Amino acid sequence: MSETAAPRRARGGGGAARRAERTAVSIETARFIERNIPLYEPLSEEALEVIEANAETILQEVGVNFVNNPAALDRWREAGADIDGERVRIPKGLARKLCATAPSRITQHARNPARTVEIGGNSLVCAPVYGPPFVRDMDGGRRYATMDDFRKFVKLGYMSKWLHHSGGTVCEPTDVAVNKRHLDMLHAHMTLSDKPFMGSVTEPSRAQDSVDMCEILFGKDFVQENTVMTSLINVNSPMTFDDVMMGAMEVYAQNNQACILSPFIVGGAMAPVSVVGTLTQVLAEVLAGIAYSQLVKPGAPVIFGAFVTSIDMNSGAPTFGTPEASHILYGAGQLARRLNLPYRSGGGLCGSKLPDAQAAYETAHTHNAVLLGGVNFMLHSCGWLEGGLVSSFEKFVMDADQLGVLHHMARGVMHDENGQAMDAIREVGPGGHYLGCAHTQANFKDAFWRTEVLDYKPFETWEEDGARDTMTLANARMRRMLDTYQQPPLDEGIAEGLADYTARKKESMPDAFM
């Protein structure tokens, strides 16, 4: 799926047309990834059965808390759970039975139908970083994020070929009041990009604003009958569901919009230090949360989420790209597939303060685990820095470029007639070279993945060009992308409706920064 937005060619001869084509701005988005490779599944059948049995025991004997939410307690009581204050104990088998009504695959529609994505099965949808209050670039350093920063990230996401999704809170714009910033963020996603996006979850009324604005963008009937938003609902691990997150999920479930039900776990602090113990808690929390979404509305679209990282036992800081985190990612994927649910995990996670070698190593480990672990929706796939505290402009561009590697790896290895290349081997024979043979000429344009950021020049050329490192190259590409950005077209009436809704809602309430 791709779209080209380019200025009209100037009239003239073939040379002028070719020059115009070379300088035209191309806005292309690759289709979401569909794996043609096997997954890595390290847990045995015995281990999976132990985890599943222990998770059911936790739900029945330990229980989970639904705090400040009497309606949720009433729903659980009616479904057959044991209620003790705010503690909900769920009989064995009940949560799994309720989860069975959740769909196994979700179509999230974009306002540009060519960018609609499928979440589930063998697909992988890549979405950018989510949530950091700080941003960083080479010029301004580390600073609090603003709405201008947010809009720049949305533009970069729109222009990134290998990124399928515009995301949600790509950074937290601290120069806009807390109770109003979701309106500006949604407006940016809806108008500056035509890729799918995420709704607000910071308060139930903000989730309703997200639905209302989508009804302006897509039409009310379309929203009620189709999924046009994916939203992140975090569990307060261990085993606590708060009224804010659950309230937002209730709004989305009632309006047929997808939620990622995701424990947020730092192993050793919010879950056991062992892989199997953590996976047991993850499964118990996910079962309870997804079951509750189905109590709100059977058939509501939902995604099995797992955000798990380990902890540095010396400093207490979270660590990323570790073997233990990868084992949990792989194992959670196996559990999600046994429930026949879409799976969210991973991203370009790292603990580094700069887009340096540490960031690259840790990000690459997680990206590879995502591909091999069967993740269907990868949040934080580009731009994450400093343990999720910082959205980095340079790392956004670097990571988005590397997502192209995942696309090519997922294709697998072709062994058809063209892949066998026997004609080329016969044509060249002993002692020749393949540069000019017919097979090379027919395939050279797409035979190998090509970076838009990294430098492959000889040393002398690289030195003459300024001896730039990767971060410098990414900064230059980021600036080119923003300089050549072209806003995707939007119906004038819809644009006015979104602007009017945003303005009226912001004017209807005083600023609040809590």
From TrEMBL:
InterPro entries noted in UniProt: MttB-like_sf, MTTB_MeTrfase
GO BP: methylation
Region (Disordered): 1-21
Enzyme class label: transferase
Domain of life: Bacteria
UniProt keyword list: Methyltransferase, Transferase
Sample GO molecular function, one term: methyltransferase activity
UniProt entry tagged with the keyword Transferase: yes
Enzyme Commission number, as recorded: 2.1.1.-
Stated family: Belongs to the trimethylamine methyltransferase family.
Protein name: Methyltransferase
Organism: Roseovarius pelagicus
